[in-house]
Design a protein that fits this description.
mainly beta, Jelly Rolls, 10 strands
Amino acid sequence: MSCSRTYTLGAAVGGAGTATKSEETPWAIVGSLLAVGIVYKDSPPAATTDVTVSTVAEGGMPSQSVVSLTDAATDTVIYPTHSLTNAAGAAQTYDGTRAIKAPLVVAGRFTIAIAQANEGDYVVVTFVYEGEG
């Protein structure tokens, strides 16, 4: 069964085209991340606004990049996947060239950041996943 969690980032602070904000979610998700919705709020400049979402390095797991949008301000949905590997870390493929993809597996909280925005801009991020959290 699919679940969802939504996080509203606080307002960016700084000048026009240089404002930033970064926060960590207070909750964790453990499971397969199916989709991440990004909704821009206020009036972020499309020519410069960057949004990143990554997992927080904790519990022995390194940080993973989930979303990295550059110079964008259009609401979107991202379907994060990763290439499967074998026990030795070699890429798994269908035919030696086409990587086998699967939903990104996560276990922890997220860092959400907006950069190169305008004062007061922010994003609302919705995570759709199968698992716990």
